[in-house]
Write a structure and sequence with these properties.
Length: 124
């Protein structure tokens, strides 16, 4: 499962280079500025689904997060979201993963170029 996920790189540098080439530095910076909020919305949706004991909705929200994170080159976030979507069998197992997901989101937000503050909390 998620053993060793903290050893995974936060970012997929090859994806970021593709984005930089396609968008340019300014647009890439604007895109990165949107990542924490977009990821936070997905995290909140996962939390709401867990609270409602809705496995299908939690997995749907994880799918959205996987796509967003992958598009932005946020490799660790995408990996955790993929695990939730495809591997975790129950709401309880997803609930146990939320702190790992939140930590990855905070680490990612804090590591974005031009961004030093971490995203705080979830929708709880």
């Amino acid at each position: 499962m998620l053993e060793g996920v903290t050893q995974e790189p936060l970012f997929d540098e090859s994806q970021i280079e593709l984005l930089r080439d396609a968008l340019g530095e300014d647009e890439l910076g604007e895109m990165f500025a949107d990542l924490p909020e977009a990821a936070q919305r997905s995290l909140a949706a996962i939390e709401v689904a867990v609270e409602a004991n809705d496995l299908e909705q939690a997995k749907r929200a994880a799918h959205v997060l996987k796509g967003v994170a992958g598009s932005f080159g946020a490799a660790r976030l995408a990996l955790i979201a993929r695990e939730i979507e495809l591997e975790l069998p129950s709401v309880a197992s997803i609930a146990q993963t939320i702190p790992v997901l939140m930590a990855a989101l905070n680490d990612t937000a804090a590591s974005l170029p031009g961004r030093s503050e971490a995203v705080t909390g979830g929708a709880r």
